[in-house]
Amino acid sequence: MKSDELISELSFDIPGIKKCQQNRYPLLFIDKVFDVIPGLSAKGIKCFSYNEWFFPAHFEDEPSVPGFVQVETLVQTFIMTFLSLEENRGRKTNFISIDNVKFRKMIIPGDQLIIHAKLESFKRGIAKGFAESFVDGHPACRADFIVSVPEILNSYKPSVK
Amino acid sequence: MENLEIYNKAFIESLGTTEEKLTDLKYQDILEWDSVGHMGLMVSLEEAFNIEMDIDDIIDFSSYQKGKEILAKYNIQLK
Fold first, then answer.
1. How many contacts does A have with B, using Cβ atoms within 8 A?
2. Active site includes A138?
3. CB-based contact B35 A126, cutoff 8 Å
4. Which of A114, A142, B29, B37 is most solvent-facing, going by the fewest CB within 10 Å?
5. Do B36 and A154 touch (CB under 8 A)?
């Protein structure tokens, strides 16, 4: 057995994703997460159909995925890199920073987005890393993230006297 | 750069404060020193001094002055 075969890759459908993170309709923006190496990386899929609630409003004559939704698809895949760890499942997360956001492609109804996320560090409830998305192999969006897990973070804060 | 300068720089950059306010600064005295700011400050100090602090020390790190005592345990002298 090769050493890399010892690393287990996981996948999560919607019920599985909902066990790991607390985002829910209409703000859960990934359909499936796969090739998950807990503590290291994850890949996500989001299929956009015209039935999405935002398309009729953004925009009526030219429907496309709003930027904030694209960023959410990235971060929701990113948080699966550490919320897939048994001890973190179901915990809430908060943004600390979003940097270097780049939008490279308009995403329209019928597009399937593939997201690749990497966790660079996870220490004391602070996760750092990045995610990038693709449509048909073409780059769509990318961002660097720092995300906190308040439940963990708060266990390290000084007591106020 | 002297250790004290490095220590002060970590506070100033992590918490967005000024050197004049450091002497009496305590956790939650300013909005920026909340639980998130605290962790940013701890990371900055660990990187600046190449140390890894114990959990108890991170929790005890409740002021600028207390931090000096804690760093002394890691052989970081701040004069």
1. 39
2. no
3. no
4. B29
5. no
Contacts with B55 from chain A: Cβ below 8 Å: 156
What is the three-class DSSP state of A30?
Answer: coil
pLDDT in tens, A109-158: 999 999 999 999 999 999 999 999 999 999 999 999 999 999 998 899 89
Enter the ipTM: 0.76
Cβ contact, residue pair A158, B55, below 8 Å: no
- Give yes or no for a cis peptide into A38 (omega within 30° of 0): no
Burial environment of residue A49 by CB neighbours within 10 A (0 to 12, 13 to 18, 19 or more): exposed
Q: Evaluate the CA torsion angle B60, B63, B67, B68 in order and state its sign.
A: negative
Please name the residues between 2 and 61 in chain B that touch chain A, using a CB distance below 8 Å.
27-28, 34-36, 38-39, 42-43, 55, 58-61
Residue keyed to tokens 């959990």: B55
Interface test mutation site (partner B, options A149, A156, A159, A161, max chain B beta carbons within 10 A): A156
Chain B partners of A124 at a C-beta cutoff of 8 Å?
Answer: 39, 42, 58
Q: Give me B42's structure tokens.
A: 């701890």
Task: Flag whether pLDDT at A5 surpasses 70.
Answer: no
> What confidence score (pLDDT) does residue A47 get?
98
Identify the pLDDT of residue A1: 40
- Residue pLDDT, tens place only, B5-37: 999 999 999 999 999 999 999 999 999 999 889
Using H for helix, E for strand and C for coil, what is the string for A77-143? HHCHHHHCCHHHCCCCCEEEEEEEEEECCCCCCCCEEEEEEEEEEEECCEEEEEEEEEECCEEEEEE
